Amino acid sequence: MALASHPAYQLIEVTVRRSRIDGFGVFAAEPVRAGAKIGALTGEAISVAEARRRAQGRQRIMLVELSSSRAVDATRSSDPMRFTNHSCRPNARIAVEDGAIEFFALQEIAVGEEITVAYGATHHEGRLACRCSQPGCLGWL
């Protein structure tokens, strides 16, 4: 069986629209199984130093650090997953492996449900208010 036809390698159909969390978000356009790969993120390969320079003074960025020296700027990416918002109780996770940035469902996600991840450490360093409104929200990114 070819990998592209294997269910674990098929990407989930998603839509981008306004989010109650912040700006735009990415939403499931079909039911998502727990553990399923939802999508991937690509962008401009840059150094971490350049990523941190670009992040200064900006609230909305689309940067992912791949290692202590490499990062990806997805600001101009056409991948819908660049609109994935943070939640303190996410339904998906980001996996960074061998330079690939991929999103996987932590639980079943219903059609129309916003796909969210926990950003982890950010350039905001606890200074940006979290807007996820989830029970147990930490309040800051």
From TrEMBL:
It comes from the Bacteria. Pfam families: SET. InterPro entries: SET2_Histone-Lys_MeTrsfase, SET_dom, SET_dom_sf. GO terms for biological process: methylation. The keyword Metal-binding does not apply. Keywords: Chromosome, Methyltransferase, S-adenosyl-L-methionine, Transferase. Signal peptide: none annotated. Its main location: cytoplasm. GO terms for molecular function: methyltransferase activity. It is found in: Chromosome. Gene3D superfamilies: SET domain. Residues 12-120 form the SET domain. One of its GO terms (cellular component) is chromosome. PANTHER family: SET DOMAIN PROTEINS. This is SET domain-containing protein-lysine N-methyltransferase. It comes from Kinneretia aquatilis. The lineage of its organism: Bacteria, Pseudomonadati, Pseudomonadota, Betaproteobacteria, Burkholderiales.
